[in-house]
């Protein structure tokens, strides 16, 4: 055997060993380790549907979803007029999550299921959630790596995704920017954008024969504009471009067919869309970086005199930070996070409220009366919002029935003990908020009825368990933007209710489904009538 042959044999052996090593590590990390975790959960008493490699339970989920859609097609869409309350059923859990509703029947409110090669513990029991959260500090909860990767273009390492000591630092620095004084300073931006939208509605109604408007899209666009203005400003150089690109990235992710949890699925199922989203994400990062760097430069030139615009970015830059500072890269991710965590959720709380008010005109009247008492002929301002109490009940009830954030996810970064059960490190956790918000055992027999008055004397709406109502999450990681949202909700809804009365269009099809968040899949067409003659 000459030297070349020996070298070739060694090389072939090395390549074969390398391939074997890759196969072994893939099997260990994708199958053996998760499988061991699954077995451990089972031994601990958390059972669930049998997973199959590499899709886990995804196939069952898709099948049950298809079956549900077919059934709906025969029932919901055959109605000639869905405008009556009877035809708009709020019992949405089996519609939005048919698989969870089905599995609950077999395995109870806590069980184990798999997204691809990722094991999840499903929780719809607030007592279990309470016990589980008790010993876990906000900083000890992780966010599932699988979602971090999937939504990288949207959140990067922003507050929603960051963990551990980094999360503590980010939350500490960002919280003051959301103080009520700062948030109040943003109210005029909200009024300005909402008034522009309503002027257009009035114009559309005036100039067309059919006074019908598809309000879901309008409200989402409006909320996008508001959040971009309040986060990083869009009247400055590149601001508008960032807003357009952020919308594009959302649409791209939204349209791509993603089997989250299945190895390489992003690139196998929708390679083009995944690459498009990544490229858009890079473009947004570089545009935001230019905005941030130019604001920092100006700040330096002005010797740190507080001349920053009064948006969230301005407040983070102007802060006297004995708490520490965020790097430009961190700020890029936070601006994206505010946009994605803040605009669709707020828009959906408004959209679902409009649906509920359209089928309950008596509540439109009650809210108009309240607005008349509190706001009168003046312009609405933040000091009045606390007195719009009934509107607060309606907001809570809408978020109970149609929670814009339908679930909360975690990943255990250490073993978590709940009574005799141990949830092993690395297990993902899926808290089904929609299920808890629609649980008869927690809310009573009228659980699926629209009754805002249940929030009259109780901030958890009479729910039998404090952790059964979680529209803004729970514990230390509760939503940082809730003051901002409540203000935007009350301002926009007040402006709508003072200008229009509305009912559901006969073209409306009630079909709530999860598309990242809980949305009316066929939009929300409303028939609007101006309450006074617009000049
Ligand atoms: C109706 C409107 C909103 C709803 C329903 C909502 C819901 C939630 C929920 C459920 C969480 C907890 C997520 C978790 O624990 O994993 C959360 C966290 C968060 N929200 Fe909101 N949100 C809304 C509006 C906003 C707005 C307007 C902003 C910002 C401008 C915002 C920014 C955030 C951020 C940054 C977090 C992460 C907090 C942390 O982990 O420390 N949200 N939100």
Provide a compact summary of the structure.
InterPro entries: Cyt_P450, Cyt_P450_CS, Cyt_P450_E_grp-I, Cyt_P450_sf, Cytochrome_P450_Monooxygen. The protein has 535 residues and is α+β, with helices and mostly antiparallel strands.
Give a written overview of the molecule:
The protein is of the alpha+beta class and 535 residues long. 55% of the residues lie in helices and 10% in strands. It has 21 helices and twelve strands. It has helices at residues 3-43, 58-75, 93-96, 98-107, 126-134, 145-150, 152-155, 164-174, 180-184, 187-207, 215-231, 239-255, 265-269, 271-301, 312-318, 328-359, 361-374, 389-401, 433-437, 440-443, 482-499; strands spanning 110-115, 118-123, 141-142, 212-214, 407-412, 416-418, 421-423, 428-432, 500-504, 512-515, 517-520, 525-530. The protein has a five-stranded mixed β-sheet with strand order 1-2-8-5-3. β6 and β7 form a beta hairpin. α10 packs antiparallel against α11 (215-231), α10 packs parallel to α21 (482-499) and α12 packs antiparallel against α14 (271-301). The longest helix has 41 residues, at 3-43. It is globular and about 100 Å long. The relative contact order is 0.14. Residues 73-80 have low confidence and may be disordered. Bound molecules: protoporphyrin IX containing FE. Protoporphyrin IX containing FE binds next to α16 and α21.
Search tags:
55% helix, binds protoporphyrin IX containing FE, 535 residues, alpha+beta, 10% strand, five-stranded mixed beta sheet
Outline the biggest β-sheet. Answer: 5 strands, mixed
Task: Determine the mean pLDDT.
Answer: 88
Low-confidence stretches: 73-80
Distance between the termini: 97 Å
Relative helix content:
40-55%
Tell me the radius of gyration.
25 Å
Order of neighbouring strands in the sheet with most strands = 1-2-8-5-3
Give the overall silhouette: globular
Structural class: alpha+beta
Give the cofactors and ligands: protoporphyrin IX containing FE
Pfam families: p450 (PF00067)
Protein name: Oxygenase
Subcellular location: Membrane
Cofactor: heme
């Amino acid at each position: 055997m000459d030297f070349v042959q020996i070298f070739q044999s060694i090389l072939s052996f090395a390549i074969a060993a390398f391939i074997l090593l890759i196969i072994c590590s893939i099997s260990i990390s994708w199958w053996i380790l998760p499988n061991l975790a699954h077995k451990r959960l089972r031994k601990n008493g958390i059972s669930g549907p049998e997973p199959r490699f590499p899709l886990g339970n995804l196939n069952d989920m898709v099948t049950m979803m298809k079956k549900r859609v077919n059934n709906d097609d025969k029932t919901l869409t055959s109605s000639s007029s869905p405008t009556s309350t009877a035809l708009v059923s709020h019992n949405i859990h089996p519609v939005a999550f048919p698989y969870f509703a089905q599995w609950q029947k077999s395995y109870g409110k806590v069980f184990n299921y798999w997204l691809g090669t990722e094991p999840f513990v499903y929780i719809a029991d607030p007592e279990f959630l309470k016990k589980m959260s008790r010993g876990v500090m906000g900083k000890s909860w992780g966010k599932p790596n699988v979602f971090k990767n999937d939504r990288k273009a949207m959140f990067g390492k922003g507050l929603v995704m960051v963990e551990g000591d980094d999360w503590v630092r980010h939350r500490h620095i960002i919280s003051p920017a959301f103080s009520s004084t700062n948030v109040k300073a943003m109210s005029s931006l909200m009024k300005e954008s909402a008034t522009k939208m309503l002027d257009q509605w009035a114009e559309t109604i005036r100039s067309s024969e059919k006074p019908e408007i598809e309000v879901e899209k309008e409200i989402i666009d409006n909320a996008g504009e508001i959040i971009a203005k309040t986060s990083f400003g869009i009247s400055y150089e590149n601001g508008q471009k960032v807003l357009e690109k952020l919308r594009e990235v959302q649409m791209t992710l939204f349209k791509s067919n993603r089997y989250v949890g299945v190895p390489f699925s992003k690139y196998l199922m929708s390679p083009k869309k995944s690459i498009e989203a990544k490229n858009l994400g890079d473009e947004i990062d570089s545009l935001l970086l230019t905005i941030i760097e130019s604001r920092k430069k100006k700040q330096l030139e002005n010797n740190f005199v507080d001349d920053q615009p009064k948006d969230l970015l301005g407040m983070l830059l102007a802060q006297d930070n004995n708490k520490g500072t965020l790097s430009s890269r961190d700020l890029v991710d936070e601006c994206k996070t505010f946009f994605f965590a803040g605009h669709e959720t707020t828009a959906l709380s408004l959209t679902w409220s409009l649906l509920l008010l359209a089928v309950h005109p008596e509540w439109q009247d009650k809210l108009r009366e309240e607005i008349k008492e509190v706001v009168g002929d003046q312009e609405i301002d933040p000091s009045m919002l606390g007195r719009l109490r009934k509107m607060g009940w309606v907001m809570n009830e809408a978020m109970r029935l149609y929670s814009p954030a339908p679930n909360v996810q975690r990943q255990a970064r250490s073993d978590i003990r709940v009574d005799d059960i141990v949830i092993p490190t690395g297990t993902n956790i899926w808290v089904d908020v929609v299920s808890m918000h629609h649980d008869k055992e927690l809310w009573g027999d009228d659980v699926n009825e629209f009754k805002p008055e249940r929030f009259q004397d109780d901030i958890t709406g009479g729910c039998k368990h404090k952790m059964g109502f979680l529209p803004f999450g729970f514990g230390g990681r509760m939503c940082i933007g809730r003051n901002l949202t409540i203000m935007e909700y009350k301002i926009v809804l007040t402006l709508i209710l003072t200008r229009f009365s509305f009912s559901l269009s006969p073209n409306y099809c009630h079909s709530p489904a999860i598309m990242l968040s809980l949305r009316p899949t066929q939009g929300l067409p409303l028939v609007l009538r101006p309450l006074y003659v617009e000049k």
